[in-house]
């Protein structure tokens, strides 16, 4: 296996939301004494921790994408369906354009929103009080959801035009 094919879609839609989740969780946990002690102990293995964080970022991002694809899309398609068969279109240029312009960012927005909602639940359960982190989480969640709705509308119009 000479080359592992990682597309822009996978990096943006899977890895980035997972990485943001881990980053915010790490920032929040800095206030927890046990994590501080753990980090002091693991300074010698920081490269190992970085590699594990990168792998977890991708895995968590795929989990968020599974929630989006298996749960949210199923519900949303009951009300405003997307013609998913369009993605099997033999015109590869059309599909690539749809991915590059809309679908990648649509999945990123929803996966980031799912990540943020999980973080909000976690932070609420631990009574996390950093106002800056709360503001960033809430604003980015709102913006991501609004943008995802807008992008889904465009994707729906494109995929359903010949339907």
Characteristic terms for this protein:
79% helix, globular
Walk me through this protein's architecture.
It is built from 5 helices and no strands. α1 (8-29) runs parallel beside α4 and α3 (46-79) packs across α4 (92-125). It is an all-alpha fold and 163 residues long. It is 79% helix and 0% strand. It has one domain (8-160).
Quickly describe the structure.
This protein is mostly helical. The protein is built from five helices and no strands.
Q: Could you tell me how far the N terminus lies from the C terminus, measured between alpha carbons in angstroms?
A: 40 Å
Give the count of helical stretches.
5
The poorly predicted ranges are none
Radius of gyration: 18 Å
Largest sheet composition: none
- Got a strand count? 0
Strand proportion: under 5%
Derived structural class = mainly alpha
How many structural domains does the protein architecture include?
Answer: 1
Query: Based on CA inertia axes, which overall geometry fits?
Result: globular
Mean model confidence by pLDDT: 82
Written as H for each helix and E for each strand, in order along the chain, the element string is HHHHH
Classify the helix fraction into a percent range. Answer: over 70%
